[in-house]
Amino acid sequence: MAFRGRGRGRGGYGRGGVGGFGIAKQEPFVLFPDIELPDVSSVPEEKNLVIRNARLQNYWKSSPYYLEDIVPRKSQSTDIERFSDRVKLRTTLKRDPLEQILRLTSNNFPLELVQGMKGATHNKRKVQWNPESDMQKLELFEKLEKKLEGQDEKGGKEKKEGENEDEDDEGGEEAAEEEFSDDGDYNQNIDFDDDEDDFNMEDDNDDEATY
Amino acid sequence: MATQYGVQLAVHLISSHFGNLVAKVCDCLLRKGTLTLASVIRFTELPPQQVKSCILVLIQHNCVQAFAIQQEVGFGEAPRVVTQYMALFHNILHRMRFAKFLAIVSEELDKECEEILEGLLQHGRLTLEQILDRAKSNQSEGEPVVQDALRESFLKLVRAHFVERCPASEPFLAPPSEEETPARKRGAKSAKLVEEPQTIEQRAIAAAAPMDAKRFSVIINTGTDVDDSPNVTAGEKRKQDALELDKETGASCEKDVLWRANFEEFVRCLRHKACIANVKTRLDDGAAIVLSAMLEATRSEEKKVKTENSVPLSMDTIFEGVMKSEAGRSMTLERVRGSLIQLGCAPCVRGAAESYSVDLKNIIELAQNDEVESITLKRYGRDAYRIFRLLSKSCRLLETDKISDTTFVEKKDTAKILYQLWKDEYLQMEKLNLHGSRQSQFLLWKVTKDTLWGHVLNEMYHSALNLSLRVAYELEQEQEIIQLPREKRVGALGNRFERLRKVRILLESSLMKLDDAIMLFNDF
To answer: Where is each RNA polymerase III Rpc82 C -terminal domain found (chain B) (predicted)?
Structure first.
């Protein structure tokens, strides 16, 4: 143990010289080492392809298919909650649960996968086809996209707010499990866990304290 | 080919699209091969429910195929059927080029078709009902969506074979029976001597695929049957009749049919484009126009993507096709004939008509050679390029001095270059010891295309991975700038935003171009 500690301190030299190990040269770790790059102008700009790609990627990041790691809420907030955190939370996305969009029948998926999942029957909730992805990312290509894009974004946002209220009404058996507070619009944007995923069932209802 | 960097690239793609959890499961399947659910849970050390969700996502997006197989059990026990999951490496890589698929549909069909395809690419699989529902919710204010027009667009996509029925979710593979051995005995006589027995994965894919007649057939609830197999052979007609009988019982479950983008057709289109582009630069515009007309006319008849020769066509059909295109309108019959000769297709006389067919495999090989030679030139210089070209054309072992003489490169330099190329795995080396009047050792060098192509492909995957990682890194660095509303992006912040935009366009365009090369070695 002590020897190992000594060896580390000297950067790998130690008594191991006899064994064929020389001094290990310690190089600083560079994430992207400089290399000779080809001429920038020789690359044909495929703006159309890049835009389409960006649109797809933005969709997936906010889709129900993007499965997040479960991090218990308590461990996240060891620091004092700052005002800027609240702003950050507002932009966190509310995803549809996976069961809503997948047709979980044994025709479409292997039986053993479908058996455990809730909502094996088709969910009555409306699917969010146009989730409120980071609209700012789309603005990255604003100059290149058609003007209609801007109108569509607005329409999409309004529809989403409308759909949220629809979801509150439709409730059904999900409402009992969700412990969703009925303060209407006031809690719309706080990252409140109201989906019926198994993943988030462990969560306490911490946010009751905030209002 | 799932090489080391290919797997890393695939996992990176899944991770950026679906998150780290799904990527972990995908990584496990790619590295360890086909596994059962229990094995995946054990290897990934994730909770079972999460693993199930991850696999569901992967199946939904056509990245994993499940199949049921009978497990061998001990004496006296009833045979158990287990479900196994295999990763579909090529389908995962196709995710890099979804934008190209959308571009193809945008060119060949129309905007509505493109939007339907976008939905299918976003979600992996959808029923017709979901497609219509999505289009309705996406409609903009001034343009209400007409259901019939949407169905028509959907049918256009299916007719063009850009959209197909999803494969079976869990086909059962019967255990290999006694029939195998007689087939092997017969095999000695047949021409296909070297036909390897199918792996279990290949069998699963074949078993899951929908029947040819059903794959592109849409049955709408209104009762009208839309079939689009233009060449209805006797066998297929019988299948169609069987379908008709099933229609009444099956009509109710037709609306639950899942549809997906047919990657095969898109790859075929891109392959054709690559051939045409190669011919255009290597020969001339005329030859490119003729080839383009031929391939367009026969695209729906090609059986598999990597067909060696194009489907034979008569001179009249070719000429008709050429006349249809704008660029070809001014070409005379003689000119078309000349182009056909340039393309190297000698007329093949079958019966009364003579037909022409282009060797596509040859064109692809030439394109691949060009690519590797260009890499050699850029990386090792002109002398190395000459040496490499000599070796790859001669296809046999050549000795150092001989190479030096033929290419007019100094012996010392030749030896250095050959050694460098060999170290980087571009060449193979063999030593030859001659015991004659004096002992001498000769070094012989050779280019082996198969191993070299695999090596080049792996390097390309590595480059693509690096490019993707760099783009992700740049975006992450400027995360705050991206989230700022437009009004605040002025001055220094505005400049950073502009820089990021340019960087992103440049890096991703490079990635698209690199992907063309990857497809050339992997898919074409």
So the answer is: 152-344
Q: Do domains B4-89 and B265-358 have the same CATH topology?
A: yes
Distance from A31 to chain B by nearest Cα, in Å? 10
Chain A positions touching B510 (Cβ under 8 A) are: 43
Range of the domain at A56: 44-69+82-116
Cβ neighbour number for residue B339 with a 10 Å cutoff: 24
Burial of B101 (0-12, 13-18, 19+ CB in 10 A): buried
Query: In a mutagenesis test of the B interface, which of A48, A52, A84, A111 is the best target, namely the one with the most B β-carbons within 10 Å?
Result: A52
- Averaged pLDDT for residues B466-492: 84
Does residue A53 form part of some domain? Answer: yes
Of B49, B169, B510, the CB nearest to A108: B169
CB-CB: which of A65, A103, A111 is closest to B170? A111
Q: Answer yes or no: do A98 and B56 touch at CB < 8 A.
A: yes
pLDDT at residue B276 tops 90: yes
Structure tokens at A34: 């400089």
Distance from CA of B73 to the nearest CA of A (A): 20
How far apart are the CA of B399 and the nearest CA of chain A, in angstroms? 34
Could you tell me the pLDDT band of residue A156, with boundaries at 50, 70 and 90?
Answer: very low
- The helix (run of H) or strand (run of E) holding residue B497 is helix B491-522
Inter-chain Cβ pairs, chain A and chain B, closer than 8 A: 164
- The verdict on a CB contact (< 8 Å) between A107 and B169 is yes
Q: Please state, in angstroms and as integers, the Cα–Cα distance from residue B302 to each residue in B263, B272, B310, B321, B459, following that order.
A: 14, 11, 8, 17, 31
B/e letters for A64-81, b = 16+ CB within 10 Å, e = fewer, are bbbbeeeeebeeeeeeee
Task: Decide if A60 and B53 are in contact by the 8 Å CB cutoff.
Answer: no
Task: Please choose, from the candidates B204, B207, B213, B217, the residue with its C-alpha nearest in 3D space to the C-alpha of residue B257.
Answer: B217
Given a contact cutoff of 8 angstroms between Cβ atoms, the answer to whether B481 and B507 are in contact is no
Q: What is the CA radius of gyration of chain A?
A: 26
CA distance A44 to chain B (A): 7
**Which of the following CATH numbers is that of domain B4-89: 1.10.10.10, 1.10.8.60, 2.40.50.140, 3.90.79.10?**
1.10.10.10
Q: Are B99 and A142 an interchain contact pair (Cβ–Cβ within 8 Å)?
A: no
Which residues in chain A are closer than 8 Å to B57, comparing Cβ atoms? 65, 67, 98
CB B218 within 8 A of CB B155: yes
Q: Provide the token pair at A186.
A: 């006031």
- Does residue A164 belong to any structural domain of this protein? no
**Residues contacting residue B396 through CB under 8 Å, at least 6 positions apart:** B446
Question: Closest Cα of chain B to A117: distance in Å?
Answer: 8
Contact at CB, B133 and A109, closer than 8 angstroms: no
Q: B265-358 maps to which CATH number? A: 1.10.10.10
Nearest residue to B47 via CA among B27, B25, B29: B25
Listing DSSP states for A14-77 in one string gives GGGGGGT--PPPP----SS---PPPPGGGSPP-HHHHHHHHHHHHHHHTSTT-PPPP--HHHH-
Give per-residue pLDDT as tens, B290-333.
999 999 988 888 888 888 888 888 888 888 888 888 887 888 88
- Every domain of chain B and the residues it spans: 4-89, 109-171+208-261, 265-358, 363-447, 457-522
The ipTM, to two decimals, is 0.83
Residue A4 belongs to some domain of the structure: no
Split into its structural domains, chain A has a count of 1
CA distance B279 to B289: 9
In a domain, A107, yes or no: yes
Q: How confident is the model at residue B463 (pLDDT cuts 50, 70, 90)?
A: very high
Contacts of B55 in chain A (CB under 8 A): 113
